[in-house]
Amino acid sequence: MLLLIGSFLLLMLVGAPVAVSMATASLLYLIFYGVAPDIIAAQRMIAGVESFPLLAVPFFILAGNLMNTAGVTGRIYSFALAVVGWMKGGLAQVNIIGSVVFAGMSGAALADAAGIGTIEIKAMRDHGYPIDAAVGVTAASSTVGPIFPPSIPFVIYGMMANVSIGALFMAGILPGIVMMVLMMITVAIFAYRYGWGSDTPFSWRRLFAASAEVLVVAAFPVAVYLLTLTGLSINLSVLVALVVLIVLDWYFDFSAVMALMTPVILIGGMTMGWFTPTEAAVAAVIWSLFLGLVRYRSMTLRSLAKASFDTIETTASVLFIVTAASIFAWLLTVSQAAQLFSDAMFSLTDNKWMFLILVNILLLIVGCFLDTIAAITILVPILMPILARFDVDPVHFGLILTLNLMIGLLTPPVGVVMFVLSRISGLSVERTTMAILPWMVPLLIALVIITFVPAVSLWLPTQMGLIR
Fold first, then answer.
1. Is the pLDDT of residue 370 over 90?
2. Residues 354, 441: Cα–Cα separation, whole Å
3. 291 with 70: CB under 8 angstroms?
4. Could you tell me the CA-to-CA distances from 106 to 3, 29, 145, 235 in Å, in that order?
5. Residue 350 backbone zone (phi > 0: left; psi -120 to 50: alpha; other: beta)
6. Which of 164, 167, 360, 441 registers the highest number of CB atoms within 10 A of its CB?
7. Where are the alpha helices (DSSP H) in 372-415?
8. DSSP readout, 31-76?
9. What pLDDT sits at residue 106?
10. Please, are residues 155 and 378 in contact by the beta-carbon 8 Å criterion?
11. d(CA 157, CA 168)
12. C-alpha closest to that of 94 among 86, 102, 104, 85
């Protein structure tokens, strides 16, 4: 175990990529101790990526890239501006609302930061906001992406922990709303303290138009229900309602109705049992293509090719990490690391809540050094047996794990979102880190609420019958 973990940490310290560090450490362990034939090790690596739920990852990545390419991010930003731009600290509030809407499409914090975050930072800078404030609120709001469904980390966690991905998606809705409210309160406090004003004049017309778009989206499931009362099948009712919605959108030229429909289609489709989370990812891609090629006609073959190649590059990176982490996690189990860790935890405490505090501290530290996918793949096999002994619901723990690792994306030395925002804003990594620091407060408060009030995560999936 010392060789396995020690070589992994040493390689990380000298700057080797996390996947290379795990693969090399695993290879050294196999060579020195011969715990398994080469063919067994290869089979474990292949088994790590040979998973139907894992297919959702490239499709959600592609959907996010297509949404950015199709100009949907700009429409989301305009919608959010109409809704909350008139408030004090308006563009900071817009930043949060825009990220929450985009979260229902991409499922990744990095896509949020690099996509709609680019627009938000530029707009805040142009309106005279301190660049540090723009970077901080963009970083904090991007963490909602993997909490609000759909979520790529939830897909990986569900696959590793053998937990319903649909239940995880539903469990993320209320925590996502809690995070949004806490961040909006933080913006209001900053606006009062630093004298931030509104950024667009209050307009009943714009607010009414934005409200009308929300009502149109909200009316969709109601229309489907009313159509079923006429004797139409549920599938035909959805098709008729969708056609009517598309016609209305074309006629009135709504700004963001079709974009707002994305989470409705994904969540509604999974709830009704029309498709699995993996198939929902494919539906998200098809919807993105419809918006870019047919509705908005903003997507060209060149931009489509770019989005596809970006997806291939990102997917290859993710799968490499999952493959290396699979063999590494298996060897951790073989070396009795999981049992040793479990015994160590029980020697420290036998109280469930104290255990969760210790795990939160561990995850916050791990998140500073490990990529999200790698951390999930390594830690889940170690922690799952301990969760059962402490009677912690695995769906509840999925929210705790993911939020901790999202906070890790904002911290040095390997915070990916931190580096992306540093590049976008032109700030040094050090200054970007200091800009993000105050915005850790609402995220940590949200983490405490989600950890110690399990009902925030479990109420909705329980009500929907996804968990008992």
1. no
2. 21
3. yes
4. 38, 38, 7, 26
5. alpha
6. 167
7. 372-390, 394-408
8. HHH--S-HHHHHHHHHHHH--TGGGHHHHHHHHHHHHHHTTHHHHH
9. 64
10. no
11. 9
12. 85
Q: How far is CA 201 from CA 81, 127, 129, in A?
A: 11, 13, 17
CB 162 within 8 A of CB 388: no
- Compute and round to an integer the Cα radius of gyration of the chain: 23
The yes-or-no verdict on residue 456 having pLDDT over 90 is: yes
Q: Is the pLDDT of residue 107 over 70?
A: no
**Are 163 and 448 within 8 A, CB to CB?**
no
Write out the DSSP string of 269-289: HHHTTSS-HHHHHHHHHHHHH
Reported in sequence order, the residue ranges of 292-379 that DSSP labels E, i.e. its strands, are none
Confidence band of 104 (pLDDT split at 50, 70, 90): low
Q: What is the mean pLDDT of residues 117-137?
A: 83
* Gap between the Cα atoms of 20 and 327, Å rounded: 12
Maximal C-alpha separation, the chain: 72
Q: What is the pLDDT of residues 138-182, one digit of tens each?
A: 888 888 888 888 788 888 898 888 888 888 988 999 999 999 999
CA–CA gap between residue 211 and residue 208 (Å, rounded)? 5
Q: What is each CA distance from 77 to 81, 87, 116, 146, in whole angstroms?
A: 6, 15, 7, 19
- Residue 444 and residue 459: Cα distance in Å, rounded? 21
pTM of the shown model = 0.81
User: Which pLDDT value is given to residue 323?
Assistant: 81
Polymer length of the chain: 468
Tokens of residue 9, six digits: 């940490």
